[in-house]
């Protein structure tokens, strides 16, 4: 598969968007940012666990060129109704204000705000057109957009940030502080560092990032995003916020006695048993959250080893077990996501399946032998609309490959 294939139609579409909006990006730069699949530990980022994931080939393409107007002007093919977003750097609405709640413009506004607050003031006018095909919910559309905007606006201003983890911090701050979404750093790390055919391993204890090639002789597989067609309201309005609060609360409660600061610090069986013994009756929900994190961490090393040796069947098995934990212990899934999983589980050649990302709504995912992708698609197209007729016109199946996260295309408009 060549890189050009992934861009099929996207570049022409950017040209059409520029013409439609009157923005001038001719001869400018095109940066493509990917989506991501987390292979573990889902919901581990804000609990302090190791993380592992890959970039996937659903993207945002963004073309930009400096202009002489002093204004940043942007047009998105995904939100044409918002028209051209236009602002003078340094004059964006205040964080989390009502005027930004319903426009995608909150992302570029947030980038300007957070960079300036961090001592990196953007000053140049820039024309930007973009479009993407990442489904909303589960595959990190918002992190992909935020990273792409940060990197592209910095480049248009000829500013370099050497430390990629600083870019991760800034991207998270755009969502946490400006937009008000309580996301962690999983999405940004998995997209910014992603390399073709590699897994990215992040260890929060020393902030290290390493690459793990998929072992030789691995069975040919695909990662399939199963978009339920539901609209996810945003992490700030979902169960995600509640789970984060519960985990923080429990970690704080356990801290003094067990010497931990996050639930991911509970790594020994002895500690886990003692905690359950003490709190199972008084705090059953909190114990369930810990149970998921504890078991998912135990499975993490199995998964990593399996990836290294190319044993995708075991990777899939862990993915499946994580899904059951997310459903029954972490209780972060939703009915439509579980319908997708239940359908996927019936298909021979599906190695594992679970909800993806923030939870409640959005997309589920499956690890599937390439030969069985068609059978999965047929099963989903038959079963899902029967269970959820309200989403019969909106659900989608995305068959993905493992790709590089950020690419500046060798093309211009
Ligand atoms: C969302 C958040 C991430 C992470 C995942 C769950 O995608 O943005 O920070 O917590 O959910 O793993």
Describe the 3D structure:
The protein is of the alpha+beta class and 413 residues long. It has helices at 3-6, 10-21, 106-117, 141-156, 164-179, 186-192, 239-258, 269-279, 284-309, 312-328, 335-345, 373-387; strands at 29-40, 51-67, 72-76, 85-87, 125-132, 198-203, 208-213, 221-227, 350-355, 363-369, 396-400, 402-403, 406-408. The chain folds into two domains: 3-211 and 404-409, Ribosomal Protein S5, domain 2 (2-Layer Sandwich), CATH 3.30.230.10; 214-402, 2-Layer Sandwich (Alpha-Beta Plaits), CATH 3.30.70. 40% of the residues lie in helices and 21% in strands. A hairpin with an 8-residue loop joins β3 and β4. It is globular. Alpha-D-galactopyranose (GLA) is lined by residues 38, 42-43, 45-46, 140, 183-184, 186-187, 357-358.
Ligand kinds: alpha-D-galactopyranose
Rg from Cα: 21 Å
Silhouette: globular
Element-by-element helix/strand order = HHEEEEHEHHHEEEHHHHHEEHEEE
Largest sheet: 9 strands, mixed
The CATH architecture assignment of the largest domain turns out to be 2-Layer Sandwich
- As residue ranges, the low-confidence spans are none
């Amino acid at each position: 598969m060549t890189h050009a294939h992934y861009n099929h139609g996207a570049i022409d579409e950017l040209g059409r968007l520029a013409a439609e909006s009157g923005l001038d990006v001719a001869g400018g730069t095109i940066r493509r940012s990917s989506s991501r699949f987390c292979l573990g530990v889902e919901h581990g980022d804000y609990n302090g666990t190791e993380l592992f994931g890959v970039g996937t080939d659903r993207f945002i393409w963004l073309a930009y060129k400096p202009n002489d107007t002093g204004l940043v002007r942007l047009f998105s093919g995904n939100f044409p109704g918002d028209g051209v977003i236009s602002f003078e750097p340094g004059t964006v609405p205040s964080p989390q204000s009502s005027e930004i709640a319903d426009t995608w413009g909150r992302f570029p506004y947030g980038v300007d705000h957070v960079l300036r607050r961090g001592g990196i003031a953007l000053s140049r006018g820039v024309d930007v057109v973009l479009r993407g095909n990442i489904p909303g919910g589960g595959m990190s559309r918002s992190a992909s957009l935020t990273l792409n905007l940060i990197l592209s606006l910095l480049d248009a201003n000829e500013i370099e940030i050497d430390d990629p983890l600083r870019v991760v911090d800034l991207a998270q701050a755009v969502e946490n502080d400006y937009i008000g979404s309580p996301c962690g750093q999983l999405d940004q790390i998995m997209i910014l560092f992603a390399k073709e055919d590699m897994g990215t391993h992040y260890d929060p204890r020393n902030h290290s990032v390493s690459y793990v090639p998929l072992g030789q002789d691995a069975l040919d597989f695909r990662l399939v995003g199963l978009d339920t067609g539901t609209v996810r309201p945003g992490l700030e309005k979902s169960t995600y916020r509640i789970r984060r609060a519960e985990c923080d609360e429990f970690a704080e409660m356990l801290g003094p006695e067990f010497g931990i600061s996050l639930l991911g610090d509970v790594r020994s069986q002895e500690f886990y048993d003692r905690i359950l013994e003490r709190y199972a009756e008084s705090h059953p929900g909190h114990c369930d959250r810990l149970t998921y994190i504890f078991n998912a961490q135990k499975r993490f090393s199995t998964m990593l080893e399996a990836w290294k040796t190319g044993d995708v069947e075991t990777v899939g098995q862990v993915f499946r077990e994580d899904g059951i934990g997310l459903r029954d212990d972490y209780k972060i899934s939703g009915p439509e996501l579980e319908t997708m999983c239940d359908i996927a589980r019936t298909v021979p050649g599906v190695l594992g399946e679970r909800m993806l990302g923030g939870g409640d709504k959005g997309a589920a995912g499956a690890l599937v032998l390439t030969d069985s992708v068609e059978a999965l698609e047929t099963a989903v197209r038959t079963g899902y609309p029967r269970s959820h007729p309200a989403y019969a016109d909106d659900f989608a199946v995305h068959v993905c490959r493992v790709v590089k996260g950020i690419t500046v295309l060798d093309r211009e408009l």
